[in-house]
């Protein structure tokens, strides 16, 4: 079993690290879970900047364990009981491919009997997977007589702004409004908003799992979190209460200095609307699973980024600047997309690395327009975002504007759809001519794939194709080798021949058979399948731009589907599509 680590105030903690890159940290003081990060490094649990880690006072924030009372009906006992301020014992820590698990325990002692006469055994289990975190609190009555109790997981969820948040899945029930002196009210709204001090106990209705979603914006259908809450007593499912709480400044305690209240909302599963009887030797259980969903968040440089999170644990990040995909991680936590350590996230310059969108030109045939066009340095909009068991998907859009028409005189609409599944990532760029006249264009997905060493890498399945060797002044050559190696600066446009999708593999070692990636590339223009060009590029040191400091070039190969060997004509009101599916092997 792993030994405890040291956290704030030199208190003992247990740190779970799943192989996907997800992590969680639980303090033995109070069995308080104080951190849960998904494999993109984002924190989902709020801890007050004023939290006191002295081993005596309950930690403000995280997920405190409330037992045996909720609030302070027994004024001789601490508010919310003693479990959250007691020192628990670490029973076990285990790791498997599926989950990392920690189990903590607290049992009756002289100290607890001074506060409450019952005999009990509490266990808190945190189960961390690639996709979610599940917490289970079990309460066992170790006496020969029943006792009455409350229990709750006091979960502080991290959010951008409590004034904009909404909670859904509570309509139709009743709640105890503690701000209104305990009045019982009906919830008639689809979404619960928190414009001011809010303290409500939503009374459990039907037995079974209760799913609640937390949304970062009133107008946003896509949730930040999906919470599954359950309660059981003596093996039987019970209605699970849900507490919704934020004190705002009006009721913020001393260890929650304003404006810290703005960045959390508490959504807490419990057995707290009344006291419950637990028979002798019986056990009660409370469970909450936190599933972070795909969402628009703040990324590097404060830029807006869509984070896709699939239920398998796979993730992807797409910046609205340039619709640039900058991360793709499979459920095992491996990163497959390269971004330069010198990339500039200033909202103006195209991001170096990821998958920039090249449109309406490749290179710079029009010297008055930026190299590779303007799409990769424009700010796109989120058109649609969704999660399902099959896929997590986002569609970003960009249309012509005064700024774009200063560079290129045509009316257009671009959409980039990114579809993330457990096994692959698919990107599809759709170009629509919204004008009344045809236009000519080039387009490409400039995919930077992460490799251990470009000098050992090889691209296969290009044999027999003609290619434009841009390093050799644009000479047209024929690929005679079964694999393309990159021993030096390489910049080639392999000209598509067949209209069928073109499958290409990228190998980390040119002497090895297994591939790192398989890419399926396809293009359609005005409803007709077209041959898809493939660009293979690495600048080495001699052609590395300023935001690609050597030796960064060693860790990527660009394998890029495009319509770039010539300009394509798109009729008025017609669309073209360019797609690439990346399967990491």
Question: How does this structure look, described?
Answer:
With 585 residues, the protein is mostly beta strands. It is 2% helix and 45% strand. The strands form six sheets. Strands 6, 7, 8, 9, 12, 15, 17, 18, 19 and 22 form a ten-stranded antiparallel beta sheet that branches. A hairpin with a 2-residue loop joins strand 18 and strand 19.
Shape category: elongated
The parts where pLDDT drops under 50 for at least 5 residues are none
Determine the structural class based on helices, strands and strand pairing. Answer: mainly beta
- Compute the separation of the termini in Å: 33 Å
- Percent strand: over 45%
Average residue-wise pLDDT: 97
What's the helix count?
2
Number of strands: 44
Rg, alpha carbons: 28 Å
Helix content: under 10%
For the sheet with most strands, the description reads: 10 strands, antiparallel
TL;DR of this structure?
This protein has about 575 residues and is an all-beta fold. The protein is built from two helices and 44 strands. It starts with a strand and ends with a strand.
């Amino acid at each position: 079993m792993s030994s405890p680590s040291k956290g704030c105030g030199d208190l003992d903690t247990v740190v779970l690290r799943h192989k996907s890159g997800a992590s969680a940290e639980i303090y033995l003081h109070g069995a308080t879970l104080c951190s849960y990060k998904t494999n993109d490094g984002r924190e989902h649990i709020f801890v007050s900047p004023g939290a006191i880690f002295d081993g005596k006072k309950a930690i403000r924030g995280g997920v405190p364990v409330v037992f045996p009372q909720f609030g302070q009906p027994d004024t001789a006992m601490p508010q919310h009981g003693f479990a959250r301020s007691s020192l628990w014992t670490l029973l076990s820590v285990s790791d498997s491919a599926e989950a990392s698990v920690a189990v903590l325990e607290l049992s009756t002692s002289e100290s607890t009997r001074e506060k409450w006469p019952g005999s009990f055994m509490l266990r808190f289990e945190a189960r961390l997977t690639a996709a979610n975190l599940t917490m289970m609190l079990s309460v066992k009555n170790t006496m020969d007589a029943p006792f009455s109790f409350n229990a709750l997981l006091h979960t502080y969820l991290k959010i951008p702004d409590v004034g904009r948040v909404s909670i859904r899945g509570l309509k139709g029930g009743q709640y105890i409004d503690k701000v209104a002196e305990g009045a019982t009210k009906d919830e008639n709204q689809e979404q619960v908003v928190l414009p001011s001090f809010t303290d409500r106990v939503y009374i459990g209705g039907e037995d079974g799992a209760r799913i609640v979603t937390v949304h970062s914006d009133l107008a946003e259908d896509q949730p930040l979190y999906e919470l599954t809450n359950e309660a059981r007593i003596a093996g039987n499912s019970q209605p699970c209460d849900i507490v919704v709480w934020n004190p705002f400044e009006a009721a913020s305690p001393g260890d929650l200095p304003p404006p810290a209240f703005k960045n959390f909302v508490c959504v807490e599963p419990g057995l707290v609307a009344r006291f419950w009887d637990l028979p002798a030797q019986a056990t009660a259980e409370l469970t909450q699973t936190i599933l972070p969903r795909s969402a628009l968040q703040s990324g590097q440089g404060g830029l807006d980024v869509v984070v896709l999170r699939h239920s398998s644990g796979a993730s992807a990040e797409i910046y609205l600047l340039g619709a640039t995909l900058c991360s793709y991680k499979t459920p095992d936590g491996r990163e497959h997309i390269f971004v330069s350590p010198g990339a500039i996230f200033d909202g103006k310059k195209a991001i170096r690395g990821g998958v920039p969108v090249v449109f309406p030109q490749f290179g710079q045939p029009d010297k008055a327009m930026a190299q590779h066009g303007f799409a990769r340095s424009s700010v796109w909009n989120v058109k649609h975002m969704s999660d399902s068991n099959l896929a997590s998907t986002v569609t970003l859009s960009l249309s012509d504007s005064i700024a774009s028409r200063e560079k290129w005189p045509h009316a257009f609409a671009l959409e980039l759809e990114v579809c993330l599944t457990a096994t692959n990532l698919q990107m599809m760029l759709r170009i629509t001519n919204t004008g009344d006249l045809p236009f000519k264009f080039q387009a490409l997905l400039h995919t930077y794939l992460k490799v251990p060493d470009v000098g050992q890498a090889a691209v296969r399945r290009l044999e027999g194709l003609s290619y434009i060797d841009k390093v050799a002044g644009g000479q047209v050559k024929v690929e005679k080798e079964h694999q393309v190696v990159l021993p030096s600066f390489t910049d080639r446009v392999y000209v598509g021949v067949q209209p069928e999708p073109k499958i290409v593999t990228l190998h980390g070692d040119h002497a090895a058979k297994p591939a790192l990636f398989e890419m399926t590339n396809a293009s359609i223009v005005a409803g007709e399948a077209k041959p898809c060009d493939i660009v293979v590029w690495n600048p080495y040191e001699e052609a590395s731009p300023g935001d690609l400091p050597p030796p960064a070039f060693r860790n990527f190969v660009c394998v890029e589907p495009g319509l770039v060997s010539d300009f394509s004509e798109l009729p008025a009101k017609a669309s073209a599509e360019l797609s690439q599916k990346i399967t990491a092997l």
